[in-house]
Amino acid sequence: MRKLLPALLFSGLLLAAPTAQAQTALKPGTPSILFWSAEQQEAWYPAIEKVYKVSTVRRGGPVRPLPKADREIDPTFSYAGKTYSVSEYMRDYRVAGLLVLKDGKIVLERYGLGRRPRDRWTSFSVAKSVTSTLVGAAIQDGYIKSLEDPVTDYIPELRGSGYDGVNVRQLLMMSSGVKWNEDYTDPNSDVAQAGAAILEPGVNPIVSYMRKLPRANPPGTRFTYNTGETDLVGVLVSKATGKSLARYASEKLWKPLGMERDAIWMLDLAGHERGGCCMSITLRDYGRIGQFMLEGGVGRGGKRILPEWWTAQATSPQIKEDAPPPGYGYFWWMLPDGYAARGIFGQSIVTIPEEKLVIVVNSAWPQATGRELSAAQAAMVAAVRQAAKDL
């Protein structure tokens, strides 16, 4: 993975890709989600349930209002010798949704690519941060006793593998020490093969694949980006709670956070939600996720969903060795003054606690990632931050 970092990093943020073969298309011959045309992106990103097998994360109860602020922002910014308005940036960089919350109020909300406010949009690896949050909920509920618990306590099929001696916290830090190849250009890499076939009847395919991998480093010593382990954490949450990820996310997030629409979660070949990828969520509900973390993991009516210590710990650097500076949290990317959930093709939830700011971007970039695409988005985010400060 280390040799790939220069191509995939910008401003210390890795834009993570999912395994392309680990889900079931509804129609034979459906092209990989990594290689959809612009027309397919616009048609299918808002309607992933028409392409792949999915489960539903049910909402319920009153919708949490996101009122409009008294004043809205409409920043302009310069990038690569050109001045952009928000509308021009969205047009040129294929942005389907841009939402900015300041103090829990909407200061900017725009849609593009034919998307409407009630339309969902696929998350790619932003789902990893949701899965991490469900670990926190499972600790609060007593399903997971401690982050120091061995992973094998919850996924006994991993006993006798490279995961012996690895704890839950080390999985969340992507530092299990198990050897892994996340080269998206190599069809023989782990990321290309993990979960792509049922290897053992009755055993989740990602578990079957991961338990055959050797140990490369001592647990907890080095960061190695590993999409397979985020799917593995999803399996762990389901085994610990005795519930599907969709059901548990409904109980702990979608209902108590007052989400406005059901979410969709892509399934793996065994019919289990992918812990590392591919939820479909409305723009405002992405914003509610960011606001929930900003507010310390408290839901409707002040009910605590996450342990009091969880959000501060999950969104601060937990490992630095081989991680993009300033480090990596629990499936959250660190910023110098905040944190972010990130997904390929331009998906992000950026949260700046001191500014009480949440910035959500949904896009359909022409390629999964790239320095220029990331740099342009960073310039836009910086302009939004400044405009929000000036309100």
Note down, in words, how this protein is organized.
The protein has 391 residues and is of the alpha+beta class. It has one domain: 3-Layer(aba) Sandwich (Beta-lactamase). The chain has 12 helices and 14 strands. The strands form 4 sheets. It has a 6-stranded antiparallel beta sheet, sandwiched between helices. A 4-stranded antiparallel beta sheet has the order 3-9-10-8. It starts with a helix and ends with a helix.
Mean pLDDT: 93
The H-and-E topology, N to C, reads as HEEHEEEHEEEHHHHHHEEHHEEEEH
Neighbour order of strands in the largest sheet = 7-6-14-13-12-11
Rounded radius of gyration (Å): 19 Å
Q: CATH superfamily, called what? A: DD-peptidase/beta-lactamase superfamily
Our measurement of the CA-to-CA distance between the termini, rounded to an integer number of angstroms, reads 42 Å
Main sheet properties: 6 strands, antiparallel
Structural class: alpha+beta
Helical coverage, percent range = 25-40%
CATH architecture: 3-Layer(aba) Sandwich
Indicate the overall shape.
globular
User: What portion of the residues fall into strands of 2 or more residues?
Assistant: 15-25%
CATH class label: Alpha Beta
Structural domain tally: 1
**Unreliable runs, pLDDT <50, ≥5 residues?**
1-20
Could you tell me the CATH topology label.
Answer: Beta-lactamase
SS element count, helices:
12
The overall strand count is 14
